[in-house]
Write a structure and sequence with these properties.
Distance between the termini: 87 Å
Number of strands: 11
Strand content: 5-15%
Number of helices: 19
Shape: elongated
Oligomer: single chain
Structural class: mainly alpha
Helix content: 40-55%
Length: 501
């Protein structure tokens, strides 16, 4: 029997805002590592910031996990269920218990400073060009001073906070799974708050107690936590606990490689729509979850120099935390869109019909599955996003958009010539055998009769029956739109040209 501890990882979001692309990756990587090792993946809700708690943000966590296909071995029962032990607020006593133990051992202390004093201190430090931080005023109070400060707190209706007593001398060495060892001078570290005045913990204490109690073996989080990493190691040492193996995931940058990924585009002129950053935005934009998962798995990790496409099962098989990169990765929306188009092309048409139907419903278009299965193969190769479905399919499913009279004339054709050409097409198609072969024979024969190149003839017909300059092949389009609708739309286009002549 192996002595290697069981791999237990977690995703521990705070329900104070909707889930970001970076949060999706912070959930995916520990899930992959747990599944790769046959271990456990835990979902934990870090809800100690009750002032900023949002019910919609809590629901969004569950929506994201379901959309990504990340199942949970331990965790909350759902956003509408009663909170259980996987909500931090449900075991506040544990944090208070450990905070008291740290105070008794001299590794933490009560801080009675008011917010007004801390603000004055900060302003003074800035004015003196000193690094802002707590000055340890309450750390070295004698018994009488401490009693006086406590009495002031009580009189003003305030509760003290609990701060970590960082060693004043020496060094703290830290190393995560993918980085070289870093050395921090303890004199440069701040006495951070562990327990707030509402008796709930800060992240600094809560995640440590929870990771210990839940026997987390690997703790993955963003690299923004690197500056406080030594404080967390100091806290572990003060509690006498072995920390999990930390993995600080690389930053995700804006597409131009400058700055952390943000909503606003980082172009010089600010043109264009904002960047997608929230997971629900990618879902609503028409990305497939399998493409999204495949792409974000490659933000800071890779499994091959010449391969990029992998299913979730293949990612599980290949994933290794020691291959995670330290350097940041720039978001590439074009690559994600290409990957999404690839996955769309692999879908059986019946499944694509199910996936695209909600987008058609939202656009007010019919979603008869048999009809979708007929016409989707005509556009599947061109579709990069499910949200493109309405524009690609509307003229098959309902009446076509009214064409622009300026788009109707073919190459080197004026209005009068276009009218006569469409009238001839209406006559030819009215008599044609309604099959792909019959339609092709009728239109190619008409082109010869009118002494037109096929493209000259086909373009005004295409615009007339689809309302667009780009559409699937003309014979397939005419056939699937249907004779009655084709003739009606040709008549409409003819009237439009005569009206604008």
């Amino acid at each position: 029997m192996s002595d290697t501890p069981r791999v237990r990882t977690r995703y521990a979001p705070s329900p104070t805002g909707l889930q970001h692309l970076g949060g999706a990756r912070s959930a995916l990587f520990p899930w992959l590592w747990a599944r790769h090792n046959g271990g456990d993946f835990i979902l934990r809700i870090e809800d100690t910031d009750q002032a900023r708690f949002r019910a919609d943000a809590l629901a969004d966590i569950f929506d994201m996990m379901a959309w990504l296909g990340l199942d949970v071995d331990e965790g909350p029962l759902g956003p509408d269920a009663e909170p259980n032990e996987y909500f931090q607020t449900q075991h506040a006593h544990r944090y208070q218990e450990e905070a008291q133990r740290l105070i008794q051992s001299g590794h933490a202390y009560y801080c009675y400073c008011s917010s007004e004093r801390l603000q004055r201190l900060r302003e003074q430090q800035i004015a003196n060009k000193q690094p802002p931080g707590y000055d340890r005023h309450c750390r070295f109070l004698n018994d009488d001073e401490r009693a006086a400060e406590a009495a002031t707190c009580e009189r003003e209706g305030r509760n003290p906070v609990v701060r970590l007593a960082v060693p004043l001398k020496g060094e703290t060495r830290v190393k995560d799974a993918i980085r070289d060892e870093s050395v921090f001078d303890n004199s440069t570290l701040e006495d951070i708050i562990l327990l707030k005045s509402d008796s709930l913990p800060t992240y600094h204490l809560a995640h440590i107690v929870d990771d210990h109690d839940m026997r987390i073996s690997h703790a993955m989080r963003g690299s923004e936590y690197l500056p406080t990493f030594p404080l967390h190691i100091i806290t572990y040492e003060a509690l006498g606990w072995e920390p999990p193996l930390y993995v600080h995931l690389p930053l995700i940058l804006n597409p131009n490689g400058k700055g952390k990924l943000s909503k606003r585009k980082q172009s010089g002129d600010g043109a264009g729509s904002d960047n997608l950053t929230m997971v629900y935005e990618f879902r609503e934009a028409g990305y497939l979850p399998e493409a999204f998962v495949n792409y974000i798995a490659l933000l800071g990790w890779s499994f091959s120099a010449d391969e990029e496409i992998a299913t979730l099962d293949e990612l599980v098989e290949k994933f290794n935390i020691y291959d995670i990169k330290v350097s940041p990765s720039a978001m590439n929306y074009e690559k994600l869109e290409w990957m999404n188009g690839y996955y769309i092309r692999q879908l059986p048409v019946e499944e694509l019909a199910e996936r695209v139907a909600p987008f058609l419903e939202r656009a007010g278009l019919p979603t008869d599955r048999a009809r979708l299965v007929e016409v989707l193969p005509l556009v599947q190769e061109r579709m990069k996003l499910l949200s493109e479905g309405p524009e690609l399919l509307d003229f098959f499913l309902a009446d076509a958009p009214t064409p622009s009279s300026g788009d109707l004339p073919g190459k080197k054709m004026d209005t009068a010539m276009t009218v006569s050409t469409l009238e001839a097409a209406r006559s030819a198609l009215g008599e044609a055998d309604w099959s792909m072969e019959g339609i092709e024979a009728a239109l190619r024969g008409l082109a010869e009769e009118l002494e037109l190149k096929p493209g000259q003839l086909f373009q005004p017909i295409r615009v007339a029956i689809t309302g667009r300059t780009q559409a699937p092949g003309i014979f397939e389009t005419v056939y699937h739109v249907g004779r009655e609708a084709v003739l009606s739309r040709l008549e409409r286009a003819i009237g439009l040209l005569r009206q604008n002549a």
